[in-house]
């Protein structure tokens, strides 16, 4: 606990993905007080052609109530 899944378009390097996973993990430890060993991060690449059907529809549009950062809105 917790497990984070990041879905993104292909094209990012392995180094970029590892840096993102490390940063997310560090923030979870800092903010939630989780132990480093309990955090896992998965990164799934989804093609732009499949984004609407596989990510936007089921993960974003259908789950608006659970989004803490919505696309198109600045933080």
From TrEMBL:
It comes from the Bacteria. Keywords: Isomerase. Residues 2-51 form the 4-oxalocrotonate tautomerase-like domain. InterPro entries: 4-OT-like_dom, Tautomerase/MIF_sf, Tautomerase_PptA. This is 4-oxalocrotonate tautomerase.
């Amino acid at each position: 606990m917790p497990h984070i899944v990041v879905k993104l378009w292909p094209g990012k390097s392995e180094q970029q993905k590892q840096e993102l996973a490390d940063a997310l993990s560090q923030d979870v430890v800092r903010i939630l007080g989780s132990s480093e060993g309990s955090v896992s991060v998965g990164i799934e690449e989804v093609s732009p052609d499949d984004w609407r059907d596989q990510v936007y529809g089921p993960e974003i549009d259908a789950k608006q109530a659970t989004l803490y950062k919505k696309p198109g809105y600045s933080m």
